[in-house]
Amino acid sequence: MALSVPGYSPSFKKPPEILRLRRKRARNHGAAVSPPPQLPEPAPRRAALAAGLPLRPFPAAVGRGGGAGGPAAARRNPFARLDNRPRVAAEPPDGPPGGQQEAPGPFLESNQENDLLWEETFPERTTVTEIPQTPHISFSKSDIPSSESTELPVDWSIKTRLLFTSSQPFTWAEHVKAQEEAQGLVQHCRATEVTLPESIQDPKFSTELRCAFQQSLIYWLHPALPWLPLFPRIGADRKMAGKTNPWSNDETLQHVLMSDWSVSFTSLYNLLKTKLCPYFYVCTYQFTVLFRAAGLAGSDVITALVSPTTRGLREAMKNEGIEFSLPLVKENGRKKRTSGASLGYGEEQVISDEDEEESFSWLEEMGVQDKIKKPDILSIKLRKEKHEVQMDHRPESVVLVKGINTFTLLNFLINCKSLIATSGPQAGLPPTLLAPTAFRGATMQMLKARSVNVKTQALSGYKDQFSLEITGPVMPHFLHSVTMLLKSSQSGSFCVGLYPHDPTAVFNICLPVDKVLHKEVVHKELANCGLHPKTLEQLSQIPSLGKSSLRNVEMRDYIYNWRS
């Protein structure tokens, strides 16, 4: 019987009295009712006991308040964090195989022990003790290393960075003499063909190698603004933020820049048409266009690929009479082809209206045309074009323009007002033109090359690892040229990591070929385009990488292996 305290209610009980009554009530309840069946111990506790770890009694086994004569259940630490339980992370590469987990260590911290008790008390919070076996991941054909080959597949994507690694030094690529740099510039301007031996004994003292390397680093750019990064243009607002752009609010200056750009663009197309320039890129802040001369990528006519596109851009091209196709979009089992010259906008609208009237004619036959609300024309049109809107800004939205329609595309791009941003850091800045050969208004630029020597850990200690980093807009011809040089300088053994500009990876899709061209004809017609014959032979191949691009290339004993 509880003692009464003056000034308080008679029913007041001190905390010790409350605990005593609860223990007594639990004992009485345990004597009157048969004990519940023993619950199985959780898997974490079984694993800990199997490892020989001293743990406190399991609360489910001794009862909530402790069994008769048994020790009382240990209380959980109320100050323990509830979120400090080890998370089940993805299995590391060098860890145990999937489906297995190493047993806990010989010691557990107090927090971990409290976590075990928390899991036992609250079964609704589950603990994963065995990581399920990782299902077999089926890699696509492009994700699996290719079969051994002496040549790389053609890759039309633009790279932003290349990182070569080799067991032999790249000292020949640094500290170029003034005479060697000048000789490289002359060789590039004169399109001099340089053929190196299969293996160079001492690359550091090979003047021919160093001049050829300088020759391959050159590319041509318009416009040229040294304080602005002009490639890539898609997603470059953050890099250009805070830079000086005096033309953003000056319409006269914008008109001058655009007029100069139009002259350079037209010059490039004329060189492409006469097969004096193999290809070039037009890089805008929304999409990229690749123009290729006839004979490249297996096509007998000039081709242009635009990616990514939007429904608005495609509609504008259609209204200008540009005939194009969507190579990655199929309709009724065939490649979708859109012609802007076959039907006018008004004729298409009349045909669509007639189809809609016929589709609701059955309502009139039933006599319920007034009771059922028909969807408006705009809703029907949006429903039909839903799939076209969904593929906007995706690789599937790539547009192919062929033949004489590329000239119409040229005029469309010159007069397209949405080609230039109206706000932001790129406001008023014309698109970037990139080409491997000179053109009117272009500026000669060079990719940046830097060699680094590091120590890497090996089984027997440390070994030297040499690397060569190349940054800038790396175009397809340079990738082939530099691999031919490294094949000779590194004795046919090196690796390279490639960092492509993702929006341009779709340029590697295989296009429908109307006529198979002979290599001799292609080489003869494009002999004056300024590329090495072997590089020209590679670029004339039909692309096989699909929507992907090369990511890793390894050469061992003059044999290539690559992964995309």
Plain-language structure description:
The protein is α+β, with helices and mostly antiparallel strands and 564 residues long. It is built from 17 helices and 15 strands. It has a nine-stranded antiparallel sheet with strand order 7-6-8-5-4-3-9-2-10. Strands 11-12-1-13-14-15 form a six-stranded antiparallel sheet, with helices on one face. Helix 5 packs across helix 6 (207-216), helix 6 (207-216) packs antiparallel against helix 15 (476-489) and helix 15 crosses helix 17. It is extended, with a radius of gyration of 36 Å. The chain starts with 14 loop residues before the first helix and ends with a strand. Its main location: nucleus. Residues 45-62, 71-81 have a biased composition (Low complexity). One of its GO terms (cellular component) is nucleus. Belongs to the DONSON family. Residues 1-109 are annotated as: Disordered.
Oligomer: single chain
Helix content: 25-40%
Q: Distance between the terminal alpha carbons, to the nearest Å?
A: 83 Å
Q: What is the number of helices?
A: 17
The percent range for strand residues is 15-25%
Shape annotation:
extended
Largest sheet: 9 strands, antiparallel
The low-confidence parts are: 60-72, 82-144, 341-354
Can you give the mean pLDDT?
78
Overall number of strands: 15
Structural class: alpha+beta
Main-sheet strand order equals: 7-6-8-5-4-3-9-2-10
Q: What does the radius of gyration come to?
A: 36 Å
